[in-house]
């Protein structure tokens, strides 16, 4: 007689037959997946390192270019200043000194204003610097300032009184150079010394002797 196989025994045999194969496939799949993940994990990391290296290298190159450009610009600017300001020279070796941002020339210190004032206020501003509106002693000195100031207008220390021109310190003007115009206050422009109304606002030029 044939033996009867119950449902539970049939199910058990099916599971026993399938389990090894399923288990084997699952393990192989896991190992493959781990291998893929391992390979895949190294690749992005390598790419990231390469990208970082390239980026850092680009930053270094750009920084180097900027530094070189700044050095070239600084050198060019220094050369330009030297060409435009030949009168700015060191007085330390001669034992003389001018205040910061003042210009030493022919034994005097000069202040060239950026602001504009009328003649009287310009005189007061110079006095606050322990100076006077600039005294120009010779035609050579006037020519120098004419060439340096170009066509801009700058008050200097001459004013007209009843008996003629006088310097702001009270000394008499000895006609070292001509002063054009019929005004009562003198200024320097690109043509030389001129005069106009003292109430007009212009830049101004202060001076005092160089000090030991």
TrEMBL record:
It is a single-pass type II membrane protein. It holds the Pfam family Lectin_C. Residues 105-207 form the C-type lectin domain. Keywords: Lectin, Membrane, Secreted, Transmembrane, Transmembrane helix. Gene3D superfamilies: Mannose-Binding Protein A, subunit A. Its main location: membrane. InterPro entries: C-type_lectin-like, C-type_lectin-like/link_sf, C-type_lectin/matrix_domain, CTDL_fold, NKR-like_CTLD. GO terms for molecular function: carbohydrate binding. It is found in: Cell membrane; Secreted. The chain crosses the membrane at residues 59-79. GO terms for cellular component: extracellular region; plasma membrane. It comes from the Eukaryota. Belongs to the true venom lectin family. This is C-type lectin domain-containing protein. It comes from Naja naja (Indian cobra). The lineage of its organism: Eukaryota, Metazoa, Chordata, Craniata, Vertebrata.
């Amino acid at each position: 007689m044939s033996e009867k196989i119950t449902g539970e025994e049939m199910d058990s045999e099916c599971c026993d037959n399938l389990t090894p194969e399923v288990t084997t496939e699952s393990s192989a799949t896991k190992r493959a997946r781990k291998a893929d993940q391992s390979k895949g994990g190294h690749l992005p990391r390598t790419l990231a390192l390469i990208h970082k290296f390239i980026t850092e290298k680009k930053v270094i190159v750009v920084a180097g270019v900027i530094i070189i450009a700044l050095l070239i610009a600084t050198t060019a600017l220094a050369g330009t200043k030297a060409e435009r300001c030949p009168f700015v020279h060191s007085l330390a070796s001669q034992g003389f000194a001018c205040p910061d941002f003042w210009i030493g020339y022919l034994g005097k210190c000069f202040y060239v204003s950026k602001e504009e004032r009328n003649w009287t206020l310009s005189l007061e501003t110079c006095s606050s610097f322990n100076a006077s509106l600039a005294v120009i002693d010779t035609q050579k000195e006037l020519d120098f300032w004419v060439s340096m100031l170009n066509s801009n207008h700058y008050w200097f220390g001459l004013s007209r009184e009843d008996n003629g021109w006088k310097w702001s310190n009270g000394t008499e003007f000895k006609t070292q150079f001509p002063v054009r115009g019929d005004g009562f206050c003198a200024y320097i422009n690109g043509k030389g010394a001129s005069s106009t109304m003292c109430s007009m606002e212009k830049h101004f030029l202060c001076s005092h002797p160089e000090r030991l």
